[in-house]
Specification:
The protein is an alpha/beta fold. It has 14 helices and 12 strands. The strands form 3 sheets. A 6-stranded mixed beta sheet has the order 2-4-1-5-6-7, sandwiched between helices. The longest helix has 31 residues. The two termini are 23 Å apart.
């Protein structure tokens, strides 16, 4: 499942530093001048999920063979999500300023947007157009809306021309929705609770930037981390410079450093998990002595379609699925116990997968 999250923001807000931290290596050029990134950098990032290791621990106990040198499980594989480091935006991008249409075309290729805002005070890093987090956010929203206006107006003009030839209910309904979208773009205000599914579907079909799912991330000073550690307002607060330092350490050293500075969970972990959720994704697991693995599916996916993520043949020959919830598996402490307790159930083609399901698919090819 190839779904991408684009990191968007003004030049010099820390996008490439954050991107490098996500990948735990220096991939993107992080420099103190505008447009250090021209072409997008793309990277695959593992989704942190403590459930994976806990499942692996139980599998190790259940299948451990003292007469074998093989590790049990032989491998543990995380779910992944794709991040894209996109060139910095400047005011007027929709009319060609900066990288203009090239920048906007890169955003159209992603499924969701991480909007990185500068909220750090390093005077040595040039403020290229950036004023304040609130102002920067408003500018970017306006630029995305302006870029979409042209697409919507052209579509409206075409359909209104077709309506003059005769009444067409489908065209008439789309024109109504397009006018609603037009009003929203002109206002620059998007409140998801007020947007119908029909409007969202049309916006998706036109690949409108303004309607893409967004996550606001504040790049703050390291000494402010503790202030925002427990804040739950839907946004992410992190210090990209600190995250880059943590990413350069091994896991043990990183945990010790985090403990030293009073950081319970890295900002990157929060960002990746929230980004995963932003895409409407969830995880199911397969578990055995050879492999414990997290698989990515969209929410509301039925069992046969979930099986196809492993192999298309699994969906074609789907018979049923043996499933246990993550919570029940942890309580059972083994598949054997789960079966004896009646917690392992058999589900058919209409079963809607739940986040955390541990599954074995039955199929016949």
């Amino acid at each position: 499942m190839s779904l991408k999250i684009g990191i968007v923001g003004f030049p010099n807000v820390g996008k490439s530093t954050l991107f490098n931290s996500l990948l735990k290596k220096q991939v993107a050029l992080a420099a103190n001048y505008p447009f250090a990134t021209i072409e997008p950098n793309v990277g695959i990032v593992e989704v942190p999920d403590e459930r994976l290791e806990k499942i692996a621990e139980i599998i190790k106990k259940e299948y451990f063979n003292p007469n074998s040198n093989k590790e049990v499980p032989e491998r543990v594989v995380s779910a992944v999500v794709e991040f894209v480091d996109i060139a910095g935006l400047v005011k007027g991008a929709s009319s060609g300023q900066g990288l203009g249409n090239k920048f906007l075309s890169h955003i159209r290729e992603v499924d969701a947007i991480v909007h990185l805002l500068r909220d750090f005070s390093d005077s040595n890093v040039i403020r290229e157009g950036s004023v304040s987090p609130k102002s920067d956010q408003e500018v970017i929203e306006i630029e995305l809306a302006l870029a979409d206006l042209d697409i919507v107006q052209k579509r409206l003009h075409k359909l209104e021309g077709e309506l003059k030839k005769g009444i067409n209910i489908e065209i008439s309904e789309e024109v109504q929705l397009l006018n609603q979208i037009l009003k929203r773009l002109e206002s620059g205000i998007y409140e998801e609770s007020l947007v119908s599914e029909l409007e969202k579907n049309l916006a998706r079909s036109l690949n409108l930037l303004f309607y893409k799912p967004k996550l606001i991330v504040f790049n703050i000073d390291e000494d402010k981390i503790s202030e925002f550690e427990s804040l739950e307002d839907g946004n992410v607060y992190l210090c990209a410079k600190l995250e880059n330092e943590l990413a350069s350490l091994d896991d043990t050293s990183a945990l010790e450093y985090m403990k030293e500075i009073g950081l319970k969970k890295s900002g990157l972990s929060k960002l990746i998990q929230k980004g995963y959720n932003l895409l409407g994704l969830q995880t199911y697991f397969t578990a055995g002595p050879k492999e414990v693995r997290a698989w990515t599916i969209k929410r509301e996916t039925k069992a046969p379609q979930a099986a196809s993520v492993i192999h298309t043949d699994f969906q074609k020959g789907f018979i049923s699925a043996d499933i246990i919830s993550y919570e029940d598996f942890i309580k059972s402490e083994s598949f054997k116990n789960a079966k004896s307790l009646g917690l392992l159930r058999n589900e058919g083609k209409d079963y809607v997968m739940k986040d955390g399901d541990i599954v074995e698919f039955k199929f016949n090819v």
